[in-house]
Design a protein that fits this description.
This protein has 548 residues and is of the alpha+beta class. It folds into two domains: 180 residues, no CATH class; 358 residues, Porin (Beta Barrel), CATH 2.40.160. 23% of the residues lie in helices and 35% in strands. The chain is built from ten helices and 18 strands. Strands 3-4-5-6-7-8-9-10-11-12-13-14-15-16-17-18 form a 16-stranded antiparallel barrel. It has a two-stranded antiparallel sheet with strand order 1-2. A hairpin with a 6-residue loop joins β4 and β5. α1 packs antiparallel against α3 and α4 crosses α6. The two termini are 67 Å apart.
Length: 548
């Protein structure tokens, strides 16, 4: 049969179908069709527009004059695509209408005039086969007619190769999925890591420090048992010691220095569990707990939980009030109201420094501790306020801002940390924190701290003050970058008549990629150690942070 005659036969049912076939819903599997050949494009156009039929016949006649005859097509399986005018297409369309085995494209379109690849058609046929098998299995076989079963059988035979290929692909995907599930690290645990490389040095008239290259690594295993809780098991290692400054002050402590080990020895530095109870959040720490784990510090873009993506110094990272005490304990966050513009909440927490020590004067309740109460208020999405109170007991030779380390401070002057070095003392600390974000490109935050010290010896009382203000420009120069400037007075002993220790810090976090950032910055300390006429100290740091 000549090529021209064959195409004339193909078009004859097209003309009839245009007159009698009504549109109905049909779907194709989400597989992109192959690029149609010129012949396929002509056939597809004939099903969508009745008027160009004669033009297509003329095209076929001209095509027959210029091309040699092709061999006769004797089976549907020999077509590369299935057209809306094909018997197989119409048979499947009829099955779809009666059994609802396909609902349409995900966007709700029908595309009844669109040609299908044989694999798309096979996917639709497979859906109808599954639907009919389901009806038979549920004892509703009487709904399936013998004619439809015969049609399905014929379609299976015509598209046996495509059905086998699709099922083979599904089996292969299921096998690969099973393999991935079997080799997955954990169904409930994910690893969140951070590595910090830091080159830092201090400068001044009497500076004796050398340039150092330090590191710290944190590997946090986050485990969820219910999907709403989280168990944090963090392993840390590093060698970042604090640059020594005049009068043994702690003002030069940077966030990557907050590490209880040395010489890259690894250990579990934080073990804590979060879980909800109603509209409240419960926090339980077995070791390494700090107040900023559960209490909002209200210092966006500067606070990063002493990680490598916030401020450089511990002073600029958060108010020193959150660095009073630490260790093991529990906390509770209680939200009030049902939302709206004002969103108040209450935070309560208790941490003990040495809860594992059963000796006299130690343990969970008889040793060093810090109890926190904080009232939080969010006003819309732009303003956050917090009022904080911390009551602490500190044994002899314990630092006030010890962060759970007991014997050393992590912020402030030595006089502010060791008001009474020979006797235990009690601290009552009051803080106020605020953050205002007038736009997405500007954030202003600050804090004020007053701590009253009551010692158990003669003339052991004292007052500690601190305050700070920061301005952050998020997405400065590039999305993910942060330009930060922070200034204030580090914690100092108020009874000391010497000059106050001021702190000015500037840094620029440049986001190299989603997982790498580089942060150059400078810290300027005036009157370090709370000593009048002391040489200023300038600390320069280049920090690189890898997160994964």
């Amino acid at each position: 049969m000549s090529h021209l005659l064959w195409k004339t036969l193909v078009l004859s049912p097209v003309c009839l179908g245009v007159a009698i076939v009504c549109s109905s819903k049909v779907v194709a599997a989400e597989i992109e069709p192959n690029s149609p050949t010129p012949q396929q494009q002509l056939i597809s156009q004939a099903t969508t527009e009745a008027s160009p039929v004669l033009e297509q016949v003329n095209q076929y006649s001209q095509e027959g004059k210029n091309q040699t005859s092709l061999s006769q097509v004797t089976s549907v399986s020999q077509f590369s695509d299935v057209q809306p005018t094909d018997w197989a297409f119409q048979a499947l369309q009829s099955l779809v209408e009666r059994y609802g085995c396909i609902a349409g494209y995900p966007n709700g379109t029908y595309r009844g005039n669109r040609a299908l690849t044989r694999y798309e058609f096979a996917a639709g046929l497979n859906a109808c086969l599954d639907r009919v098998n389901e009806l038979i299995a549920t004892a509703t076989a009487d709904l399936v007619t013998k004619e439809d079963l015969a049609t399905l059988q014929r379609l299976q035979e015509e598209f046996s190769a495509e059905l086998a290929t699709l099922r083979g692909r599904v089996d292969a995907l299921e096998a690969r999925t099973a393999e991935l599930e079997a080799n997955q690290f954990s169904t409930t645990t994910k690893l969140v890591g951070e590595a910090v490389f830091a080159v830092t040095d201090s400068f001044g008239d009497n500076d004796n420090n050398n340039t150092v290259f330090q590191n710290r690594v944190r590997l946090n295993f986050q485990t969820s048992f219910t999907g709403k809780d989280i168990l944090n098991t963090r392993i840390a290692t590093g060698n970042a010691s604090v640059l020594p400054l005049a009068n043994d002050t702690f003002e030069g402590t940077q966030t990557f220095n907050v590490f209880l080990g040395s010489n890259n020895s690894a250990f579990i530095d934080w073990l804590a569990y979060y879980f909800p109870v109603g509209n409240s959040q419960v926090y339980v720490a077995a070791t390494g707990g700090i107040h900023s784990d559960y209490a909002p510090t209200v210092n966006p873009y500067f606070e990063d939980f002493d990680g490598g993506n916030g401020a450089l110094s511990t002073f600029a990272g958060e108010s020193p009030i959150y660095r009073i005490g630490g260790g093991a304990g529990a906390a509770l966050n209680i939200a009030f109201g049902g939302g709206g513009t004002f969103k108040p909440s209450l935070t309560l927490g208790y941490l003990a420094n040495e809860p594992n020590d059963p000796t006299a004067g130690q343990g969970l309740f008889n040793g060093n501790y810090a109890a926190l109460a904080q009232l939080n208020l969010n006003v819309g999405d732009r303003l956050t306020l917090a009022a904080t109170y911390v009551n602490g007991y500190h044994g002899a030779n314990s630092a006030l801002f010890d962060f759970g380390s007991v014997t050393t401070g992590v912020v402030g002057t030595r006089q502010a940390n060791f008001v009474d070095t020979g006797n235990p003392y009690v601290s009552n600390s009051y803080g106020f924190e605020a953050a205002f974000k007038p736009s997405d490109k500007l954030s202003i935050s600050g804090f004020a701290l007053y701590s009253q010290i009551r010692g158990f010896g003669a003339n052991d009382d004292g007052e500690v003050w601190s305050y700070g203000l920061g301005v952050a420009l998020p997405d400065f120069g590039k999305k993910g970058n942060v330009l930060g400037i922070f200034g204030g007075a580090q914690p100092y002993l108020g009874s000391n008549t010497n000059s106050n220790p001021f702190h000015i810090e500037g840094f620029y976090k440049y986001r190299v990629s989603d997982n790498i950032s580089i942060t150059p910055g400078v810290i300027w300390l005036t009157n370090p150690g709370q000593t009048a006429n002391a040489d200023d100290a300038i600390i320069g740091t280049l920090r690189t942070t890898f997160t994964f």
